[in-house]
Recover the amino acids of this structure.
């Protein structure tokens, strides 16, 4: 996916950009509203992440103008304000969702997915590996003409595997990405989800292999 | 806040009392003047008649055949007769010796002369009388004799006339007083009117309406309104400034926190050593903890401010709950938590939408936070006129067996939630919001199994 991040805090912008890049997305960064317009004029983005307090204006006014000029790219507002009234305000101005700083990247991802699902109107975002087609947007896998709906954690786990097919993912890192930091979960918790995914993948030429002592790997039979 | 204002009496009543006492004093003075004037007038006319009657008597006295003759003419008495049966007395002396009439009629105190009759008021036979005395010199056989005649009349007629006049004056005075009272009431009304209109136009405003007062007011009130407007202006500026300050503070605190959190997450993806990873996770937890606490402290400040000035409107509690649930779907999905929400008819309540939504969000946040993975949270709305109850039940830890009631106190947390990030303000906020709306917050454990149930009851509009 191609993101446009509008954020004036350089450190935060850098961190968000690296995170999105790590997850395999493409991201451009604008640090003010004037450059935002330039980026939008030249590139087609899937999603705009918009900060509110910017050096050359208010993100909400930009949002209002952008929607008034028939801009259709989904917008998620990054707000430092926590008051419900502020957040409801940005939705009225045409934002698709908001997220309060500081945020959990898995929450940002979940919100992006939900917004894109609403926006795409049935369009898909399919990745294939072997015989398996994985749609990260609608959360389904298809092989041999049978489609299975995935639960959220199964979807996120499979997405990690599909992004780095053939590479080993350690149990502990998978736990970090799948569970929130305020939950104490053992590494074995991941086994439940791997087992479920294996069940969904049964009958295809794709499997999740346990690499003893290291973790898991997605591979072809 | 009105209770703190010490009233120093009503302007209206002060005006009315002052105008009325003025009118009363004027009425009394008027009555007294008219009465004393009419008394004088009545006295004078009696005196005139008495004088005329006396003159007639004296005129009729003459020396005939060397003898003093006093032939009291009929007219002298007839002019004194009136309807009130006043009695008439007379007495005639010659050279100081009693000649005829009532011998015991009192003597005049003043010496009467030919030119000036002497008038006096006295009592005779237990009746109040008015008496006039005059003298006349006649010549008898070349020697002067002094004839002194007194004529007196009782004062029944005069008293009666005076009483009549008094009654008239009283009646007239009362009328005057009643008319003055009406005018006073109207005057007070029209004086207080602009004040009342100003008060109404100020108190009708919503708590966030800080426009200057533009209602037209009398000249005398202009300085007051001007100061009021300046005050409103200052309040507006200071409110805007503090709102900006809170937003700015939140921005300044949360943005670096967000940076640290994002960097910690990236680093966590890159490092392999278990100790380092544990440290990073601790960091992220601490960041979540502090940002959540900051957010809830600000929320709590906002709630405390707004519960003083509820901005009520008609809101559909069902729709509001639905909307709040929808906003939290993405967060719930991360733990594979499913909201079950039974569709119900629109349910109108009269409340502050921002506050109610804040309360709902806190309750749902809690439910998500304390729910295990892959569980359900049920949101249910039941109507039992005149109450509507929204229940949120999770399948989590439930409330501790003891001390659940104190969870609505500030910074209170259950003794079974160690390891879960929380500020202890969530239920406090909910409780304050619900109480401000005249509702109830009930926390209990799910009677049909595991988990906690939180219900809020609000009056239907």
């Amino acid at each position: 996916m191609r993101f446009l991040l509008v954020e004036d805090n350089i450190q935060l912008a850098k961190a968000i950009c690296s995170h999105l890049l790590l997850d395999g997305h493409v991201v451009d960064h604008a640090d003010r509203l004037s450059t935002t317009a330039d980026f939008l004029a030249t590139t087609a983005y899937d999603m705009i992440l918009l900060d509110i307090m910017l050096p050359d204006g208010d993100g909400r006014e930009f949002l209002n103008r952008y929607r008034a000029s028939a801009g259709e790219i989904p917008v998620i507002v990054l707000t430092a304000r926590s008051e419900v009234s502020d957040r409801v305000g940005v939705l009225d101005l045409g934002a698709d969702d908001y997220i309060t700083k500081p945020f959990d990247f898995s929450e940002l991802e979940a919100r992006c997915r939900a917004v894109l699902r609403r926006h795409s109107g049935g369009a898909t975002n399919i990745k294939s590996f072997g015989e398996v087609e994985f749609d990260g947007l609608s959360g389904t896998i298809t092989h041999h003409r049978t489609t299975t709906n995935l639960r959220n954690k199964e979807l996120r786990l499979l997405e990690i595997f599909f992004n780095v097919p053939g590479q080993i993912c350690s149990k502990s890192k998978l736990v970090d990405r799948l569970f929130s930091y305020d939950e104490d979960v053992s590494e074995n918790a991941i086994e439940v989800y791997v087992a479920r995914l294996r069940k969904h993948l049964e009958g295809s030429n794709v499997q999740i292999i346990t690499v003893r002592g290291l973790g898991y790997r997605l591979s072809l039979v | 806040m009105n209770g703190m204002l010490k009233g120093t009496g009503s302007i209206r009543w002060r005006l009315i009392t002052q105008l009325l006492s003025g009118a009363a004093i004027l009425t009394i003075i008027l009555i007294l003047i008219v009465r004393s004037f009419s008394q004088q007038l009545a006295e004078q006319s009696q005196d005139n008649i008495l004088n005329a009657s006396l003159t007639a008597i004296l005129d009729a006295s003459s020396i005939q055949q060397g003898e003093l003759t006093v032939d009291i003419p009929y007219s002298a008495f007839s002019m004194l007769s009136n309807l009130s049966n006043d009695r008439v007395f007379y007495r005639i002396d010659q050279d100081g010796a009693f000649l005829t009439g009532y011998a015991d009629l009192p003597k005049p105190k003043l010496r009467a002369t030919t030119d000036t009759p002497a008038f006096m008021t006295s009592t005779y036979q237990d009746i109040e009388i008015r008496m006039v005395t005059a003298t006349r010199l006649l010549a008898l056989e070349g020697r002067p004799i002094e004839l002194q005649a007194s004529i007196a009349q009782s004062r029944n007629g005069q008293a009666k006339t005076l009483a009549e006049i008094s009654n008239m004056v009283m009646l007239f005075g009362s009328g005057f007083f009643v008319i003055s009272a009406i005018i006073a009431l109207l005057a007070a009304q029209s004086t207080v009117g602009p004040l009342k209109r100003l008060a109404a136009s100020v108190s009708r405003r919503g708590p966030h309406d800080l426009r200057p007062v533009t209602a037209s007011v009398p000249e005398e009130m202009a300085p007051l309104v001007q100061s009021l407007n300046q005050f409103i202006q200052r309040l507006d500026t200071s409110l805007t400034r503090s709102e900006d300050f809170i937003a700015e503070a939140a921005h300044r605190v949360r943005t670096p926190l967000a940076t640290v959190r994002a960097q910690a997450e990236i680093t966590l993806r890159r490092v392999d050593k278990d100790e380092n990873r544990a440290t990073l996770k601790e960091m992220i937890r601490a960041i979540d903890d502090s940002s959540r606490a900051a957010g809830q402290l600000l929320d709590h400040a906002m709630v405390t401010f707004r519960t003083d000035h509820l901005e009520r409107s008609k809101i559909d509690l069902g729709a509001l709950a639905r909307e709040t649930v929808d906003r939290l779907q993405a967060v719930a999905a991360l733990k594979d938590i499913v909201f079950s929400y039974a569709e119900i008819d629109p349910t109108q309540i009269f409340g502050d939408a921002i506050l109610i939504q804040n309360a709902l969000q806190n309750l749902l946040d809690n439910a998500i936070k304390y729910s295990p993975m892959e569980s359900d949270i049920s949101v249910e709305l039941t109507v039992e006129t005149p109450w509507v109850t929204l229940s949120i039940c999770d399948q989590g830890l439930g409330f501790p067996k003891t001390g659940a009631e104190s969870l609505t106190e500030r910074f209170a947390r259950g003794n079974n939630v160690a390891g879960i990030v929380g500020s202890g303000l969530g239920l406090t906020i909910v409780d304050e919001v619900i109480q401000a709306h005249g509702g109830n917050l009930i926390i209990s454990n799910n009677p049909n199994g595991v988990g906690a149930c939180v219900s809020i009851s609000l009056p239907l509009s």
